[in-house]
Amino acid sequence: MIPASGGVSHARGLATLYRAIVHDGRVGRFVLQPEDVARMGAVESAAGEDAVLYGPGRWTLGFHKGATTPKGVVPPARVSLSEEAFGHTGFGGSIAFADPGAHLSFAYVMNQMKADMGLAPSGQTLVDAVYRALGYRRERYDTWVRA
To answer: Most buried pick, 19, 60, 68, 87, via CB within 10 A?
Structure first.
């Protein structure tokens, strides 16, 4: 049994949670200040190799930042977001995140789990399309920046 796994939701529920953070600053009875949201997106730790995922990882206060799986992991996984974005992937290829700078909340889940360790290629394709539609361009190191 893996205690951190087993969360069950749907895309609308996850996107609504992140929307509350980005747009309302309210999550249940908690009211977030702009500096709280900024801190949620700031990198708190980074590792060349994550002890659990066996690849490079960057983390905020409880959230995941973009990362790439190490060479040799099949299928390879990458999570390419803007530097302000924070969220989390789910084992099997799903993702949900907030991007305060883009005024964006996003969630992608599937009805069939994939073998991906991080975000599934189909999910990253959707994330990429959203950022392009918002006028962003991909920068070095797989980060999206406002054009």
So the answer is: 87
